[in-house]
Amino acid sequence: MKTQLSHIALLEAEAIHIVREVAAEFERPVMLFSGGKDSIVMLHLAVKAFAPAPVPFPIMHVDTGHNFDEVIEFRDRRVAETGVKLIVASVQDAIDAGRVVEETGPRASRNRLQTTALLDAIEEHRFDALFGGARRDEEKARAKERIFSFRDEFGQWDPKGQRPELWNLYNGRHKPGEHMRVFPISNWTELDIWHYIRDDEVEVPSVYYAHRRPVFNRDGMWLGVTPYIELMPGEEAEERMVRFRTIGDATCTGAVDSSATDIHLVIEEVAATRITERGATRADDRTTEAAMEDRKKEGYF
Amino acid sequence: MDLLRLATAGSVDDGKSTLIGRLLYDSKSIFEDQLASIEATSASRGDEHTNLALLTDGLRAEREQGITIDVAHRYFATPHRKFIIADTPGHIQYTRNMVTGASTADLAIVLIDARKGILEQSRRHSFIANLLRIPHLVLAVNKMDLVDYDQDVFLEIKAEYSQFATRLEVPDLTFIPISALHGDNVVDRSANMDWYRGATLLHHLEEVHIASDRNLVDVRFPVQYVVRPQSTEHHDYRGYAGTVSGGVLKPGDEVMVLPSGFTTRIASIDTADGPVEEAFAPMSVTITLEDDLDVSRGDMICRPHNQPAVSQDVEAMVCWMSEQTRLTAGSKLAIKHTTRWARAMVKEFRYRLDINSLHRQEDADSLSLNEIGRVRLRTTQPLLADDYHRNRSTGSFILVDETTNVTVGAGMIVSAE
Question: Which 3 state secondary structure label does DSSP give A9?
Fold first, then answer.
């Protein structure tokens, strides 16, 4: 009798336990869904957690309006397949309503404006738990965050005042107006995600695989040529064989040179890579050493 | 490939973060941009060596003060095994975070500074590791480079600790002399300590046998969530979803549902990938029963001849983690045990434990932050509980302050009746 689970099976069991715990204990949970591989795996786990019943909570896309077309198509297809309800929290709406002021210039990004759109949506829908697809291996500040992470009425994270978290006994108690961020795949690494995508045959948007695309180089990163970003003097567009390791706002998510056109080649590439995915591809984390910690304190996911 | 969860504990400056940095660095789990970032920070601070501790000290305050505030989780893999490290703070006011980091660990590494020997914190951390029933303990005697790799220093610490450990119940204790800063006996064998014949730390972590640490005897399945599709296709489906806490369940097994006491058989064990022939800890599955019983979240599925206690009175060791309040006779708190919430009152305060001498202070009448003691609790609903030494999952609970909603206590059941 084989009674030892593989590490991937253990991670899956842990994540399903967490997702069910939230569904059982919260009144208005929602799952954040960006169309990136981590949120795709998280939604896949939610579908598995409640089968054969449907997922008992909606998903929410915080939409900067600066998307990869492939990702939006993918999102809408997944919504149709799973029957899950989709809520879109729009940064464009927040700009139009005068809630935030858009950055200007060639380095303009709506990444930071997502926090306002997110917090507004939490208030509007009175969400009490938000699933996020963050992983602890992504970034130093995330490595310190609990699986059930308390947010006060301003949506703020207090890294020094975190609740102790013991065994698998999660404490989601909170007062009205406060909420929990819950990270079911906290303990997964980038490679675990890809192994799981392979083993469970999870579909991800085509931009994760190597393809030809017009890009330009900025600060050592390949950024896609899109209508949302201005080229600076000296920057020139060229077509290259690239893939994306993360998917976020199209203006600050970089591509890497790659010939990995399928899942097996992607796993080989990820296993051999010597640069973290955020270091390679996220302009938003490069600002200061504590960039992520500062944004998380304000309510970022 | 299997998974080992380990926790590291030690006093301030024992070099925990440096050790983890070394494990990640020497097992090639550190990325170039991470290394470049800490090299730059080390250089700007004027550190003599690249400060590997900067890899795990992620918060601004930690880097500024050079201490570890909170549990940091790190991940690395070798061809043999995948590892999750909980790096826990040694600073006294953050001891509660060690409990947080260590509660699910298979193995704990307690670091000792070879120059300083065994300190109060070393005893405290060893005792907590033992209280939490972490099955494997490694005493890593660090900074051997600063005592000229002297075997006598190592042997003295080993003898003193072994003396202390006779008062604990450690099933598996291993001593390893290391230098985290220079890498001796961490991943590669030390050329400076040819007197040491044992395994390097990483080799030990790869080989330690964890498969038999789980309870595969007592069937325990706390019901977490009731799955009722209410669709035409699955009109009559009623499944009980949860995580197996002990034993092995199979379709056809006779089972009892507590607290009702009704018996039935398992009709199927379902997962989204299809039915399975058996389920064991910690699988997440959905069980269907042959009879239509009223089962809800917080109930427990077990075997008729092997049941947990069903009791509103439990004796427990509690580690108190509140900065604001104390635990004393009459304290009322919320309690979470398996998938069940109830309220609990401290009926009797038995004793506080002196962590250094392990003496029971029976004249004490309360616990404050980081103190451990034994109490008798009365709960508003029966707990379906086992002794913690028999099952870490059905024997543990948390206590939550009903005003602030903060988790203030970690409990380990000594006996439920």
Answer: helix
Considering the domain architecture, whether residues B255 and B333 belong to the same structural domain is answered as no
The predicted structure's pLDDT at residue A289: 52
pLDDT digits (tens, 9 = 90+) for B256-273: 999 999 999 999 999 999
Residue in A1, A45, A144, A191 to test binding to B, most B beta-carbons within 10 Å: A144
Same domain, B292 and B317: no
pTM of the model: 0.92
* CATH class of this structure's domain A7-192+290-298: alpha beta
Same domain, B403 and B350: yes
Asked if B58 lies within 8 A of A143 by C-beta distance, the reply is yes
Whether B278 and B382 share a structural domain: no
DSSP for A72-86, written as a single string: HHHHHHHHHHH---E
Answer yes or no: do B19 and B159 share one domain.
Answer: yes
The predicted pLDDT at position A283 comes to 56
Residues B144 and B264 in one domain: no
Cβ distance B72 to A143 less than 8 Å, yes or no, reads yes
Instruction: Show which of B178, B213, B248 is a domain's final residue.
Output: B213
Among residues B252, B243, B154, the alpha carbon closest in space to that of B198 is found at B154
Same domain, B278 and B363: no
pLDDT for B205-227, tens place per residue?
Answer: 999 998 778 889 999 999 999 99
ipTM of the complex as predicted: 0.92
Give the residue from B210, B243, B317, B323 with the most A CB atoms within 10 Å of its CB, the best one to mutate: B243
Residue B396 banded pLDDT, cuts 50, 70, 90: very high
CB B100 within 8 A of CB A164: yes
Cβ-based neighbours of A143, under 8 Å, separated by 6 or more: A136, A137, B56, B58, B72, B73, B74
What are the φ/ψ torsions at residue B192 (nearest 5 degrees)? -90, -10
Helix (H, G, I), strand (E, B) or coil at B161: helix
pLDDT at position A1 is 53
Q: How far is B353 from chain A (nearest CA, A)?
A: 21
B146 with B241, same domain?
Answer: no
Chain centroid to Cα B332, Å, comes to: 26
Give the residue numbers spanning the domain of B288.
221-302
